[in-house]
Design goal:
CATH architecture of the largest domain: 3-Layer(aba) Sandwich
Number of helices: 12
Largest sheet: 10 strands, mixed
Structural class: alpha/beta
CATH topology of the largest domain: Isopropylmalate Dehydrogenase
Enzyme class: oxidoreductase
Helix content: 40-55%
Keywords: Amino-acid biosynthesis, Branched-chain amino acid biosynthesis, Cytoplasm, Leucine biosynthesis, Magnesium, Manganese, Metal-binding, NAD, Oxidoreductase
Function: Catalyzes the oxidation of 3-carboxy-2-hydroxy-4-methylpentanoate (3-isopropylmalate) to 3-carboxy-4-methyl-2-oxopentanoate. The product decarboxylates to 4-methyl-2 oxopentanoate.
Bound molecules: nicotinamide-adenine-dinucleotide, 3-isopropylmalic acid, manganese (II) ion
InterPro entries: IsoCit/isopropylmalate_DH_CS, IsoPropMal-DH-like_dom, Isopropylmalate_DH
Number of strands: 10
Strand order of the largest sheet: 2-1-3-10-9-4-5-8-6-7
Family: Belongs to the isocitrate and isopropylmalate dehydrogenases family. LeuB type 1 subfamily.
Length: 363
């Protein structure tokens, strides 16, 4: 198969892990006889420096003409004092909105080989298998009025949490659809004891649930969910929630796997193209060290193979290679247990590629 992939490496370790994922995709192409065409676009701080905008129109066009998009991460201290509309993060929000990527899937699963890397006890995390479905194009991130109310430095500010019923409905439906194919349970997370928007969210969840009698629906307040997620994570199957709650809870969920550097994501729209990115950021604290964990990005590429290209065998081959490399004891610094020597980003990528190419069992 021939596929066009838009590649937006972005800033900081985004660049480092994207390079790794591309190499793994090239290995997949070689191994399975596919042609992947990679076309690079600017986003984030790099785009601000080059052309004065965090998301140039050329990048939007490139994405729209591609079969799928792979994005590293954006942001960094260099651009922190920029006005909000000229921050790298704006580029990320804009591409999500431009492509109507309303549902962000963030799976968290247990890796037996990483049990020691999590600060949580093995009994707590063993067997965890959940997917966070985060609403991605609404809520506080996109409400108006917003920061512009402070353009003259006033001592008042407003951010608006705005949703239309249809926006809630489509993402909640997707969560039920997913649960139907998984363990049959949806946990809808909100703050209905305080927020009007959450009360509507609950109402919508109840009405969608009627269309899925085989799926169990539970409601949970977000503060309790944050606690349950580390106390009893195995109780969750599909978690669906609004934009900001999902952002916060998914970083927390990554601790169940062992590291933020392990969690991939897929952002879906009605008609595509879909976008794939790790959930972590540009990690300025380790930028340029060659120590970043590339697996979240590599696993995002595997999600792309499965969800955008229906290359199921290929996706499994990548996931299996990652598993084998971890089982063989290779660890970047973030998942390293005490007293052992970590591998670099590049070495980890090499191991995944070598395993993928050598693995007879995969074919
Ligand atoms: P971060 O996710 O970049 O880093 C948080 C911590 O996790 C850091 O200690 C970092 O070193 C570590 N970490 C993250 N990814 C890792 C990996 N692959 N391997 C090893 N360690 C890893 O979050 P932050 O520090 O709060 O934000 C830094 C910048 O990134 C900010 O500008 C923020 O806006 C941006 N950001 C971007 C995205 C994105 O592009 N999707 C996501 C989150 C944060
Ligand atoms: C993420 C990030 C982004 C978000 C930021 C960088 C805008 O934290 O993708 O999780 O909050 O959505
Ligand atoms: Mn985040």
């Amino acid at each position: 198969m021939k596929k066009r992939i838009a590649v937006l490496p972005g800033d900081g370790i985004g660049k480092e892990v994207t390079k790794g994922a591309i190499e793994v995709l090239q290995a997949v192409g070689e191994r399975f006889g596919h042609q992947f065409y990679f076309q690079y676009g600017l986003i984030g701080g790099e785009a601000i420096d080059a052309v004065g905008s965090p998301l140039p129109n050329e990048t939007i066009e490139l994405c729209k003409q591609s079969d799928a998009i792979l994005l590293g991460a954006v942001g960094g201290p260099k651009w922190e004092s920029q006005p909000t509309h000229l921050r790298p993060e704006r580029g990320l929000l804009k591409i999500r909105k431009e492509l109507s990527l309303y549902a962000n899937l963030r799976p968290t699963s247990y890796y037996a080989s990483l049990a020691e890397s999590s600060p949580l006890r093995k009994e707590v995390i063993e067997g965890v298998d959940m997917v966070m479905v985060r609403e991605l194009t609404g809520g506080l991130y996109f409400g108006k009025p917003s920061e512009r109310t402070r353009k003259n430095g006033e001592d008042e500010v407003v951010d608006t949490l705005y949703y239309k019923r249809a926006e809630m409905e489509r993402v909640i439906k997707l969560a039920f659809q997913l649960a139907k194919e998984r363990k049959g349970k949806v946990t809808s997370v909100d703050k209905a004891n305080v927020l009007e928007s959450s009360r509507m969210w609950r109402e919508v969840a109840e009405s969608v649930a009627k269309e899925y009698p085989a799926v169990e629906l539970e409601h949970m307040l977000v503060d309790n969910a944050a606690m349950q997620m580390i106390k009893k994570p195995k109780r969750f199957d599909v978690v669906v929630t609004e934009n900001m709650f999902g952002d916060i809870l998914s970083d927390e969920a990554s601790v169940l796997t062992g590291s933020l550097g392990m969690l991939p994501s897929a952002s879906l729209s009605e008609d595509g193209p879909y976008l794939y990115e790790p959930i972590h950021g540009s990690a300025p604290d380790i930028e340029g060290e060659n120590t970043a964990n590339p697996l979240a990005m590599i696993l995002s590429a595997a999600m792309m193979l499965r969800l955008s290209f229906s290359m199921h065998e290929e996706a499994e081959a990548v996931e299996q290679a990652v598993n084998q490399v971890l089982e063989a004891g290779y660890r970047t610094k973030d998942i390293m247990t005490f007293g052992k020597k970590p591998v670099t980003t590049k070495e980890m990528v090499e191991e995944v590629k070598a395993t993928l190419m050598d693995n007879e069992a995969i074919m």
